[in-house]
Amino acid sequence: MSVQVIHDKNGVPEYAVVPYELYKRLIANSDDDALYESLPYTSNNDDDVTIPHEVVSIHIDQDVSIQAAWRIHRGLSQQDVASALDMTQAAVSQLESPDSRPQKRTRIKLAELYKCTPEQLVL
């Protein structure tokens, strides 16, 4: 039985295409608790944080960070944000890089500018 793996643009496995008969067996047994592994979970204050659909769509459709998606959603340029926060456009660009985790005080300033909460600026 062969399984086809579909990778994202970075080569990371994203989907598995399985034969239909295997799929039907997996679905038929989906209520079997033995198929699931219990994972530890600790709740926190951010559990109920949501991000508007429009922002998520920009994030996905334009392949930009969540910070950039908020900026675009609010109709601002990087230069607009730089001027409002008294920083350079290059610094704003760096904040919007995919691996960026802005400091709390920067997230607070961005949240005020984007009219959202600081928690909505990080995934």
Chart the SSEs and their pairings.
Blueprint: E1 4-7, E2 13-17, H1 20-28, H2 53-61, H3 66-73, H4 78-85, H5 89-95, H6 104-114
Antiparallel strand pairs: 1-2
Helix pairs in contact: 2-3, 4-5
Structure description:
With 123 residues, the chain is mostly helical. It folds into two domains: 4-32, no CATH class; 53-121, 434 Repressor (Amino-terminal Domain) (Orthogonal Bundle), CATH 1.10.260.40. Helix content is 42%, strand content 7%. The chain contains six helices and two strands. It has a two-stranded antiparallel sheet with strand order 1-2. A hairpin with a 5-residue loop joins β1 (4-7) and β2. α2 (53-61) packs across α3 and α4 packs across α5. The radius of gyration is 20 Å and the shape is elongated. The mean pLDDT is 90.
